[in-house]
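Email to the structure team, subject: GPC5 protein model.

Hi all, the expression group asked for a predicted structure before they design truncation constructs. Nothing fancy, just the tokens so they can compare against earlier work. One-line instruction: predict GPC5 protein, return tokens.
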Amino acid sequence: DLQICQHRAPTCCTKKMEESYQAAVRRERTQSIQALNFELKYMIVGHITAFQEAFESLLRFAENRTSSLFETAYRPMAKEAAEPVKELFTDISLYILGAETTVESAVLRFFDSLFPLVYSRLINPGITDLSQDYTECLRLTRQDINPFGHYSKNMVTELSKSLWASRMLSQALSLGIEVINTTEHAAVSKECSRALVRMQYCPHCQGLTLIRPCVGYCLNVMRGCLASVSELDAQWREFISTLEYLTNEMAASHDLETALSGIWSSINEAILHAQLNGPQLSATVDKVCGQPKQQEGNLSSANLVPVKEVTETQTFVMAHTSLSNKRREFINYMKRSRTFYASIAERLCDGDLVMRDSSTCWNGEDVV
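Reply from the structure team: attached below.
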């Protein structure tokens, strides 16, 4: 009553043993693919972690540098500016990790929050009544009178280019993990499990427990079983090419490190621009929002304060080098995995599964 290991010679197998063998080959195939996937998945997961750690280090550096700008050059508004600065860098972090937001909305929201502070603390430092309505009016007016000139738009452009490549790379790495996980749990068809039993366990029914499959036979069986997985080959190659493109973009014109480290400078230029155009801005704001209460004597002489360069360069250089090295190592490894899905049958038939150093092997029917 055997269904798979039928043979003209006497056998020591039963139908129940064949069923056990089918369960065994399903389990073994999943474990074999998991073992092959492990190194690739470990490399991708490791890079995601290293990328996020280096990115967070750069982000903290850029945030500290921006906070220091306010503390050294714009002390009157430093305390109140802390929250908008924190929100800006949180939004940037969320954007890179794939949140439904844009760089433009994050940057413009920051400048909306910044304008009331610049106006009331630097341009007109005598203002005492900064009510909620007046603050909101200043926020809305910012969009119309553009007090920060082209600097706010330039910051959007620069950050959008560099952060886009980082966001795409982050999403691509997550997609890679998803693909690998899916292939580990691809269903084994009935025909495949029967072919695997015939290849691996039918010799046992003849008492031939030391005879292993012939190489060519193993490749034919595995290719048939893995046809659906090997169909990923073209897409996987394209995926590797995309990763290569993104890492090159990040290292070239879309340099994340340079863009993040330049945020404080863009904000400084924007504030200086607003201060230099203070009288015109005041005239427009007075028409739109009305005149707020002022202290006796305007303190506008506290305006332009020279910026002290923040000395945290060593931290930045280390994070920058770490990120560059990780990117290089990672893409070199991924390029070697370009044929991963095309050669999966060959890799499964490698090692102990097949007979390589002997003249006798199992061809599915007999020892040859």
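The longest helix spans residues 15-73. The chain has one domain: 15-291+313-349. Ping us if the truncation boundaries need rechecking.
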